Write the structure tokens for this entry.
Amino acid sequence: MKTFKLGGVHPEESKITAEKQIISIPLPQKVSIPLSQSLGAPSNLLVEKGSLVKVGQLIAKGESFISSDVHSSVSGKVMKVEDIVDSTGYRKPAVVIEVEGDEWDGGINKSQDVVTDITLTGEEIIKRIKDCGIVGMGGATFPTHVKMMVPKDKEAEFLIINGVECEPYLTADHRVMVEHGLEVITGIRILMRALNVKRAFIGIENNKPDAIDNLSKLSASYPEIEVIPLKVKYPQGGEKQLIKAITGREVPSGKLPIETGCIVQNVGTALAVYEAVQKNKPLIDRIVTVTGPSLQNAGNFRVRIGTSIEYLVEQAGGLPTDTGKVVGGGPMMGKSLVTLEMPIVKGTSGILILPHQHSRRVPVFNCIRCGRCISACPIGLQPMYLAQLIENEIYDVAEKENIMDCMECGSCHYTCPSGRPILDYVRLGKNKVGNIIRNRVKK
């Protein structure tokens, strides 16, 4: 069974929503749609207080090279434009819309019929992806149209589709592969045409046999698309680890996957690309797993962008009385939320509600030099050494020790018998070193 070789861990899976079919939740009374929902620059506002908007209408334009368009996910009136707290804990501008019905923009095909015939050229596909505001749905939110623009001195050989979903608890991608397999396969074919590649691989861990079976049957008519079952191992969903597991190629330090001839896209992105190209539907909703050991109605929900997390949690049965922490994402790479009033955005893959006994920090003891964090690191770094460098503010050495290569998977933190907050220090260090590098480049 294929997998990556360096590092990795095996956290308890806890996929308690794996059999829960996707449910579309009722529209909320209002949505708050942030202007910045992708890596790169925020989008430029196109509406103002009092503006009437429809579902799918462009409300903010991504003018910078790395940016994405933002569309209204509902129909109604713009109540205000204000700064709201986003998943980072910082206040960012957002358009607040009062919902009045569900009137869609006229150019969107709302039919549920799957359209498999692809008529657009590669250039037209990339333009449609850009115009519909598609970003990476696995959480990174890199603008998809930028990722598809292969540099002239590089060549895309393989398209790799990430169906791994190795984070414990999360099952949104799993359900997409089971319930929307034909759309995903069509989305893959669209991406292949845009990239002009001849081979595509779909990597799926073997704890999802129904997804492997479904996509294997649907791709049987397309010999250029191959489903690759993978050994269950975290963090196999990382781009570098997935490329290594499937192709055996290794992305060099500080380089992008295209250096190996590979472009990696999430299965949720493939679905969004299908809807954009075949239905002219902007990215106005997404599938979100809402889960936790004590949650009454844990499940996978189709949610309009801008819906508050508080409203979504109510649809899942409300906060349990023993709630200790609410996490945006999974338990390994997710981050605790400071408020439930923040909105669902394009990069929200899951909401995890942990009880008190699962959310308390373990006691911290001195490092015993056991080396487990080094063995677990899938990048081959020395996590405890990096943490010590950051704790002592030795940023120049941390940079030389390749701290920026860290993917923040948390494997080091997970394996540490002394409970050291290694990931916290490394995240802080990456921010500090990143600022130093950017200021150096400016000079």
Summary: DSSP finds 14 helices and 17 strands in the chain. The mean pLDDT is 96.
